[in-house]
């Protein structure tokens, strides 16, 4: 019996298949039947997929059942230290370093003592045309969880 493929190996195969087949993440998400950002994160190893979702993705990507099996496993979530140096990811870190304290204050002022859930969470992503250069719009939509004693 062979061990189950690692999430990172499955993610590498997904990225290679997507690139070679000329598929967009949007096309894959549509086939999977799940939101774009969630599907992309799942295929990159950050969320477990259902058997049906994994099978649909692998069928579209012409990947075998060993990849589908890996995509259904519970991931070890968290940042890859090597990715922290990527300019796009670093800018998100920088934006949260600059605006995070202000957002925290505003959340507490508006909602009270608590946090925004990253579990009960949605992420939106869009491109907005602008005369000075297109804008990237990322929306974090998390349930407010108040602290209770």
From TrEMBL:
Q: Which residues form the active site?
A: 91, 94, 117
Please give the Pfam families that the UniProt record associates with this protein: Cyanate_lyase (PF02560), CYNS_N (PF21291)
Task: Using the UniProt record, name the top-level EC class of this enzyme in a single word.
Answer: lyase
Keyword Glycoprotein included in the entry's annotation: no
According to its UniProt record, the EC number is 4.2.1.104
Molecular function GO terms recorded: cyanate hydratase activity; DNA binding
SUPFAM superfamilies from the entry? Cyanase C-terminal domain, lambda repressor-like DNA-binding domains
Q: Which UniProt keywords apply?
A: Lyase
Q: Which reaction does it catalyse?
A: cyanate + hydrogencarbonate + 3 H(+) = NH4(+) + 2 CO2
UniProt-listed Gene3D superfamilies: Cyanate lyase, C-terminal domain, lambda repressor-like DNA-binding domains
- Cyanate lyase C-terminal domain residues are 78-149
Task: Cite the InterPro entries for this sequence.
Answer: Cyanase (IPR008076), Cyanate_lyase_C (IPR003712), Cyanate_lyase_C_sf (IPR036581), CYNS_N (IPR048564), Lambda_DNA-bd_dom_sf (IPR010982)
HAMAP family registered for this protein in UniProt: Cyanate_hydrat
- Give the protein's function: Catalyzes the reaction of cyanate with bicarbonate to produce ammonia and carbon dioxide.
Protein name in the entry: Cyanate hydratase
